[in-house]
Every structure is written in structure tokens, then in C-alpha cells.
Amino acid sequence: MKSSRRKTALTLVGVLTLGATLAACSSDDGDAPADAEQTAEETADEPVTIQVAIDEGLEEGAVEAINTRVDEFKTEYPDITVETQEYTWVGTTFAADLAGGTLPDVFTVPFTDGRGLIEREQIADVSGLVAELPYAGEFNENVAAAGQAPDGGMWAVPIAAYGQGLHYNRALFTEAGLDPDDPPSTWDEVRDAAAAISEKTGATGYAQMTASNTGGWILTTMVYAMGGRGESVDGETVSATVDTPEYAEALEYLQSMRWDDDSMGDEFLYDWGTSHADFGAGKIGMFISGGGDYGNLVTQNAMNPDDYGVTVLPLEGDDAAALGGGTLAAVNAKASDAEQAAAVKWIDFFYMSKLTDPDAAVADAQAVADQGQPVGAPILPVFDQATYDESQEWIADYINVPLEQFAPYSDNIYDQPLEPEPPVATQDLYAALDPVVQAVLTDEDADIAALLADAEANVQTLIDRG
Predict the structure, then answer these.
(1) What is the pTM of this model?
(2) What is the DSSP string of 341-392?
(3) Where are the domains positioned within the chain?
């Protein structure tokens, strides 16, 4: 398939079943978003400076690779100056960052935040600018929905999608007498592997995120894989479905590993960052997170690539599915018209061109590879699998990651049904479940039934509040 960001002819087949989700963030009294009908021509050739987000804690080589791309962007757009700003989305602090005006002009948020930010006009309406991009109509429609307003205008651009996976340390597997090329494929096997790792290596066999909304996120991931869901939708009625056999089963599973097997270590306040740090340092045998986390583990947490493994989650029970989501690139609502136009050009150049244009894909891959950073780690595509496979062919000479170690995930993820996150008050639901997971892991006598009943009542109140 020929594919160019200037002349694009993509055919989508809808291989993902990802959806738009809502999150509750505090309101922002900042400037109203600019008119969505503005075009790139109307703001062309205006000298402008924009701040763009980069991940916090990147190692020097990763920063240099980004700086190379910034220089290339400056060559293509000499009137735009790009300044990088460290930023990482955290569920418990994002609302304060948004209200406090500390976010850069271009920043990223999870799919769960898209619709809520749009409804409250807390990000810029750049839909007129995005509509001019040659691939604007070519996104998988379910992926696109995460960044769209009710009228279909795309306020935020999907830049990555994921399906949850089970990450594991191959070195610890080997040390524990397990086969790293044959990772667990059932929940019983996960439990057995965790116990073996803990007993034979002294490392944490299996770690569970529990803080900053990640406890509810990963618990709900497990529930999806066991056939449950966090919410049910009937027309306009949304009901919390937290007090269910599937949530109880997932918590009882964790309770058994924690108190019967003693295979979960002694840290029970992991969030996304701390769990990745300890996994990268070889302290954790297995944990659940998005399937595309390899880059973070290597560039920010110094994980030895030889030690990395990832596989799909076990799916057991009726209606079992892998939870899917993704990342949106958004523009600050306080940005001027010229800044918004420049911001969309940056999103197109930095995030999207490497997915749609062979020359841009090669330039990006070469810049990253020249700094010794990972190139070609498998991810789920925001367009379709054929387009993604083609983009991998463009950069084949620069791929430097151990693709065979991703095979248990990449060979099977497309065969798993992917389901979107709970659609309403998603982050509130996750936050309400954080203390439930913490209680089960810190109190041997935790009453799971009572905890889930209270959590469901809390979540339903938040759903009804809107």
C-alpha cells in the first residue's frame, strides 16, 4: 500500500475495538478556545514559539533524539520555535495542572480524558486545523472517537493505541526454572510462576499497581480478562457494575497470591511510574500494563533489553476481553490561534508523520537509532494493521529491538477481543477502586464483599453526577 502524509490513500478495516471514554477533571476558567474554522493558511508565516511535552526522566540519548527532530521541524517550519517541557500525565494531579495553567501548548492525555476535556472546553478546538491533515478521515473510527466532539470534529489526535499485556522479566524466569519463551497463558500459570520467582529468586513474583488511579485500572483490566465489565450501558442509563462476581474473583486471586503464596513482595503502593522503575531494575518478575511500554522501560528505567518479555493476558470466562485504550495529543486551550496552528503542525510532524510517510518514518527512526534508542517495538496501530505493517517495513533497517521477545504478545494480540474502558467517569471509577485493592493487599481479613458494595455505591454517585 502506498502511503504518504501528503497524499494518503488508506483503507481501514477496523481491527481495533477501542472507544471514547470520559473522565472528570475540574473546570478551567481559562480563555475560550479559538474558532475551529481557522485554517493553517490564516496563521501561516507568523513567528511563534510553542512548548511541547516530552516524558519526564528521559535518558540523555532519548532527549538528543527528540532534539534532532526539533531541529528538523525548525528546518521545515522556520517561523516556529519549539521548546520542550517535561510532563507526564498522572490521574491524581492532572486536574490541578490543567487549572493551574502549567501544561505546555501540546500535551498528551489518555483516551479516558478526551470527551470530558472537550465537553468542558478545557482543550483547544483545533478540529478545523486537524481536518486539513491528509489522513484526518483515515483513523479507525473507534480510535478517532476518543478525541472527537459530538459533532465529529477532532479536538485531540489519537497518537497511540494499546491492549493490556503481561510484562515479565526473562532473566528472573530463567533463574526460577521457568521457560521465558513459554510465558503463562492461564491465571493459574501466572500464580504458579509468581510463586516460583518469589521463592527461587527473592524478587517480587507479581506486582500490582494500586495508587494514582492505577489500582482501579489494573483491577478492571483483570476483570475484563475474567469476563466482567466496570459499567453497563442501556440507552442513556449507565450503571456501575463493580459489586460483581468478576471483581470479587479478581480480588480473591490477588488476596491468595498476597497472603497464601507471599509472592507479591512488600510494596503495595505502586503507581505507573514506580512499578515501571522497579520492573526495569529487575525487582519484579511480572506486572500488567499497556502492551507498548517497552520504550519507557528502556529509555527511562534502564531495563536491560535482553531481560524484557511481554505476552497477552489470559482470557478466561464468558465475554472475556483485553482492555484497550490509547493516548491523545491535545492543545492547550490558552494557546493563541497562531500557537494552535503551530501545535497541530508539531503533532503532525512529531507523532503522525512517522506512521503515514516513508521519508518521515525513516528520518525519525534514524534519529532515534543514532542515539541508541529503541526503534520498532510492536504497538497497536491507530489506523489499521496493514498500514502499521507497511510502516515497519519502511524502517526495517533501523529496527533494533528484540522482536522475538515480543512474539508472545505481538503474535496473539490481534486475536484477542479488545474492549474500551468503562465509558463514564472512568478515572473516578479507577480512583474509587484504588483503596479497595490496597485494603486487600494490606489487610489479610479485608472484607471483599463490603469493599465492593461501598465502591459501587460511590461510583454510581459519581456517574449520576455526570
Answers:
(1) 0.77
(2) HHHHHHIIIIIIHHHH-HHHHHHHHHHHHHTT-------B-SS-HHHHHHHH
(3) 41-161+325-408, 163-323+423-465
